[in-house]
Amino acid sequence: xxxxxxIGIDLAKRSFQVHGAKADGSVAYRRKLSxxxxxxxxxxxxxxxxxxxACASAHYWGREIxxxxxxxxxxxxxxxxxxxxxxKNDAADAEAITEAAQRPxxxxxxxxxxxxxxxxxxxxxxxxxxxxxxxxxxxxxxxxAEYGVVAPQGRSRIGQLARVLEDGDCGLPEAVxxxxxxxxxxxxxxxxxxxxxxxxxxxxARECEETARLMTIPGIGPVTAMAxxxxxxxxxxxxxxxxxxxxxxxxPRQHTTGGKPRLGxxxxxxxxxxxxxxxxxxxxxxxxxxxxxxxADPWLAGMLARKPRKLVAVALANRTxxxxxxxxxxxxxxxxxx
Length: 338
Hints:
With 338 residues, this protein is an alpha/beta fold. The chain has helices at 38-43, 58-66, 77-80, 90-101, 114-145, 158-166, 174-207, 209-214, 222-231, 241-248, 272-291, 298-306, 309-330, and strands at 6-10, 15-21, 27-34, 49-53, 71-75, 252-254, 263-266. It is globular, with a radius of gyration of 26 Å.
């Protein structure tokens, strides 16, 4: 078998397509392997670059392949698509991955450790339970509203609906009362599970020096700090803070041609969960500044005087992302503006 310089793998559940390329880019071989034979085949290959799309199982395979002595390159799927020739199939995808990974200007995704993936699962599990709680609350509100029982907005107001259901003279059908109590029990169960995950996140955030340093930034709490540790790539891969904010999609989308710069809304590229958490934290900072009557940060006070609150929140989230990069790069704690 001819020696290859790079191997492209189109990942799947059971069937994997392998494309080997020589140093000059010519095709060395094309193989279709089962899941159980993939690592054995790669172990027999001399150390080289192995490229894959950055999908759900890519990080597991990346760790296993790195243990065999190969260099792993994870390419974002959006950057692979332009290299697919004509029809789409597994062999064409594997060849496109190989071509994309050989570009000198290609951006790659860092392989996550098992600890990072565990933190990511913790965050996603909490996020799922919060969505389920919101759905259950909305279902309870909607069903009772059909019988004329309403309560003000907010999760804290659910107690008013609970008191109506406990009232023996509420006038509601017995089936409605029983089903309402079932939904209330489900809400209480989800509250308990979410509180347990929140406690676990707070403890983990305090024990880690990096997350404790991030929590000194206004607008970043334990959940956001743990999410940055779980989902963000190493900060050493970014040249400056603006590159990190651009990776998050918090910079304007460009439509520049003929030397005329045109900037639109934010690009919304990158990790959506981090972007959402940073914007939510920025809104909390703005609400705190508004209650005090005057913002502690002169930049924030000037922005609030000229721009809408939501626009300022996105701008503040961009600024927070640059601060995150600076603290991670310099290993320092946040110092407030004098």
